[in-house]
Design a protein that fits this description.
The protein contains eight helices and nine strands. The protein is an alpha+beta fold. The longest helix is centred in the C-terminal third of the chain and has 21 residues, at 224-244.
Length: 267
Amino acid sequence: MGVKTSLTLNDVPLAIKCGTLLPTQDGVSDSVYMTDRGVLKLFESASEKTVLEERNLLLTLSHLPVTKHNSDVFFIHKKPCVMYAKIPGKSLTKAKETHIVQIATFMRRFHEQTVGLTSTNIPLFEPKRLQSLIDQTQYLPFQKIFDSIGIQLSCDGVIHGDLFLDNVLFTNDELSGVFDFIDACEGDFLFDLAVVAVSWCLDGEDEHSKVSLLLSHYNSGVSFVNFIPYMKYALLYYATTRYINHRNYQSLLDKITRLDEQYKGQI
């Protein structure tokens, strides 16, 4: 994707004192640069209040392997920025069983810390908002899927909501860090886990066993079949947002079709 806002060292406040500034391909919604002091992120749409909300959440989670703010909020071109501490490792392109076990354990520990926690951020993933996004697309297949899911999402506490593979780093197959909590908000823990499932487990190979492994190590107490509506909801949410942002959404719809074909009559 590349950065949205091009920066030079002259744009960075002197107080930040970084000597290198290298653009990355990591930012989808924001602009991300590697520096000698950490990872500089310029938020294209998030407010200062939202960035501070993330900082407070990360402080709550400081004993977990999560990113950390390495600076106060500062501004470049009137947009909020923050420097994050660097996390070693690389993101995965495909998850193995050992990775799934580790992310399930992380999710369980994360939710244990955030159960009942409140957030000032907009609850991005609630059904009313998804319906409004679908209305915006006017794309009938999205509406048909939404009407077929029929689940009631809970407000369990604060969730990440976006834990795809590219938001977790591993070093020698060991989880080294989780990041991008900027959209964390109140929501349903099973939906949060479903976002992990559709990215880490629904890869066309041994999907049932991988999802079951995730559910087992999270200690969810939920069967694979009863978890399917949550996975479909997660797939639909991100297919809708990708459609709106002119990104590839069809692969997510294909996963919904595959779930429907394989487990028709069981849901």
